[in-house]
Amino acid sequence: MSQFWSKTVKNLTPYVPGEQPKLSQLIKLNTNESPYGPSPKVLTAIAAATNDTLRLYPDPNSDALKQSIAKIHDLPTNQVFVGNGSDEVLAHAFLGLLKQERPILFPDITYSFYPVYCNLYDIAFETIPLKEDFSINIEDYIQKNNGKNDGIIFPNPNAPTGKALPLGRIKALLQSNTQSVVIIDQAYVDYGTESAVSLVNEFPNLLVTHTLSKSYALAGLRVGYAVGHPDLIEALERIKNSFNSYPIDKLAMAGAIAAIDDQDYLKRISKAVIQTRENLIKDLNELGFETIPSYANFIFTKHPTKDAAAIAAALREKHIIVRHFKMARIDQYLRITIGTDEQCSTLIKALKEII
Ligand SMILES: *Cc1c(COP(=O)(O)O)cnc(C)c1O
């Protein structure tokens, strides 16, 4: 605390990201990065961009990147917004779309950045408890409708549970909730969930966000995007152009275009992660773990007798890091990112010794 801090800073409770350890000999299964590298075409494109024109500012509108994204979703470019990671896209959406009069709604257990943005931008919110089995009950959001909410946001699949809603449920929500913005955060959609992008032209209040950090294996590049009605996109552009004209630098732009253009590679590595995930769930079940069926590149699991924090600490001693949340309802669970087959075998071996 300092006398020089603004009132805003004094009142902040910042988001705490998963640890990025400086040691290299670790099996890092704590922040849902891809165990594989990005498409080789990404590296070639970035290398070409380095000796090109770094002395110049990048295109403030990132038009070429928007074109690549628009093409894979079969939408015009005025329905695409790009930002410095989907966290930045979400931040602009909170300020530009979700900051209204009445509270916005999101699940009690979800991406923990949402309440942080609410705190930063002074947005009222109400959390809706997940059902006992950790699924999102759309009816709870529909009942709250009747003009009582000014926005709804959740990831599909949800994090950190990995549970997904079928597209029909998202559609039911949109059909009954027409007067406030609904944001579906699709950070993990490529691991087996039906995309809500097909609904954006039917529902002008639907914004769907994506990231290149998980399935495209580009967490270090910082690129995310949103698709929706042109009016929603314009709101995000207005915020962006009042904040930072150049969120996508030239290298990120080159790399992101190459990644988006290589859909075959994306499908290949996503499929590999899904396969490893299913094997890992089986192996964990044999050790007595109870694992929630996952549609993400991580699993959410608990052991019936062994304390989750104790398991996480014991794994750490064996140089394996997983994520544990000290939070009501989920403090006996571990969130484990899907690694390579080899990393997962090492994890299982370590857990056998611990349990
Ligand atoms: C990882 C993640 C993000 C943020 O991704 P970046 O593009 O790296 O900022 C957003 N939402 C959810 C649910 C995530 O898990």
Q: Into which percentage range does the β-strand content fall? A: 5-15%
Q: What is the topology, as strand order, of the major beta sheet? A: 2-8-7-6-5
SS class: alpha/beta
Bound molecule types: pyridoxal-5'-phosphate
**Can you summarize the main beta sheet?**
5 strands, mixed
CATH topology description of the largest domain: Aspartate Aminotransferase, domain 2
Could you say which overall geometry the principal axes of the C-alpha atoms support?
globular
Overall mean pLDDT stands at 95
Order of helices and strands: HEHHEHEHEHEHEEEHHHEEHEEH
Number of strands: 12
Radius of gyration from CA coordinates: 20 Å
Please report the distance between the alpha carbons of the first and last residues: 44 Å
The CATH class designation of the largest domain is: Alpha Beta
Low-pLDDT residue intervals, each spanning 5 or more residues? none
The fourth-level CATH homologous superfamily of the largest domain is Type I PLP-dependent aspartate aminotransferase-like (Major domain)
Helix content: 25-40%
How many domains? The number is 2
CATH architecture of the largest domain: 3-Layer(aba) Sandwich
**Contiguous helical run count:** 12
